Amino acid sequence: MYQSAVIQGIKEEDRPKLSQWLPRDWGSTEIIHRGIKYEADKLPGFIAWRGSEPLGYILLSGSQQEWQVVVLRAFVSGHGIGSRLLSMAEKLLIQQGGGRLWMITTNDNLDALRFYQRKGFHLCQLHREAAEFSRTLKPSIPKFGLYGIPIRDELELEKYIEPPQGTPPPATHAP
Length: 175
Known about the structure:
Blueprint: E1 6-9, H1 15-26, E2 30-33, E3 36-39, E4 45-50, E5 53-63, E6 66-74, H2 81-95, E7 99-106, H3 110-118, E8 122-127, H4 130-137, E9 154-161
């Protein structure tokens, strides 16, 4: 059903849609990770479409050999949309010669922890009580999250992406 989805890079005309989706999905267009505020509606990334119907999006921050997944959202879970969007981020990193793809989630987001670990990501850091500091920047972050778990910590996961053997070295500048 979603195999016909097309993944496209975010264009300027997509930005108003992101400005609608982000508050619905995350409470605002601002995303806070480790005390850093991201204006997520301005970040690069990809959107999955089936015709004119949006299926999900991924927003990235970084450059060259290190990219952070700031937001990954599939509007319908269990159909491979999140996997395909994440794969686009990995391909971007391969085009730039490989490197580190990483993300942060909160301790309550068991579904994200399961998803990313199944995709080959490793837990690399625990940021204890980081949610408290993030709440000083974005007070709308709830005290309790998924499954009634108190939101306290931020967990960092990473995956190192190597280009396939025989891949020519990347250009000296980012696309």
